[in-house]
Amino acid sequence: MEMEEIQLTDNNHHHHDGLLPPPPPTHHDADADADASNHRDTVTEIETTQEVENQQQQQHTNDNDNNNDDVSSEREQQKQVTQILQLIASTGKFWHDWDKLKSMLSFQLKQVLSEYAEAKMTSEEQYASLGESYSELVKKLDEEITCFIEGPPFTLQRICEILLDAKSIYPNLSKLALALEKNLLVTSTLTVSADPYLQTKVQEPDDQENSSEKQKQESDSAQNGVDPVEADKDEVMVEADVSDDMTVDTEAVEDVNKSSSETNSEPNANNA
């Protein structure tokens, strides 16, 4: 009888132990869990920040590479355009498709105009200096070049000369604009040259300095009251036909005088 009671008591004790809830966490355990959670959050935040910084750095590197490629491409384009314009300026002929050459002239025009101080002035200063805004001037001159459909204006050679050495010839943008407009207000056009294509090289820095020095001397002469030869160059093409006719007439007169002199000398010889 006592054995059964002891066994029953043990069973009840085991059953009671199985129903007891786990002991509540201590204050120390709660602090440890909070610290672990904060550590995980901190590590995650650091990793995220580093990932963002790496992405930004990679993007910055890619942007720099793209910018370097753009600069290199622009320099190569500038070199090619300069080479072609120098060939036209030295020969007065062109060999390229007019649409392509037109885009080259437009590119060179905008490059040259952007080098003048007026390009960086305020709108009020631009109107005071140019009578219009810089952007309006660029658009007007660009349209005057691109409006030629059949071919380039017959003043193409002079236009190329101006665009290649604009700042040395015309210190002020307003004077450059007038010179370009003067050479673009024509209707006659050129045709593509049938001659073999000539190769030329980009003008070396020494040659450019010599050219600039020559322009400076002419500018000084103009200030001293002496008109430089370059100032009338924009009208050379217009006057060329007249000069040719005068040369032919002069030669004809000389031939007539020579023939008359020989005729008069023959009777004198017979009389002798």
TrEMBL record:
InterPro entries in alphabetical order: PPP4R2 (IPR015267)
PANTHER family noted in UniProt: PPP4R2-RELATED PROTEIN, PROTEIN PHOSPHATASE 4 REGULATORY SUBUNIT 2-RELATED
Comp. bias (Low complexity): 45-65
GO molecular function: protein phosphatase regulator activity
Biased composition (Polar residues): 258-272
Segments forming a coiled coil: none
Family membership: Belongs to the PPP4R2 family.
Protein name: Serine/threonine-protein phosphatase 4 regulatory subunit 2
Biased composition regions of type Acidic residues, renumbered to the chain: 237-254
Signal peptide positions (record): none
Domain of life: Eukaryota
GO cellular component: cytoplasm; nucleus; protein phosphatase 4 complex
Lineage of producing organism: Eukaryota, Viridiplantae, Streptophyta, Embryophyta, Tracheophyta
A Pfam family the protein falls into: PPP4R2
Region feature Disordered, mapped onto this chain: 1-78, 197-272
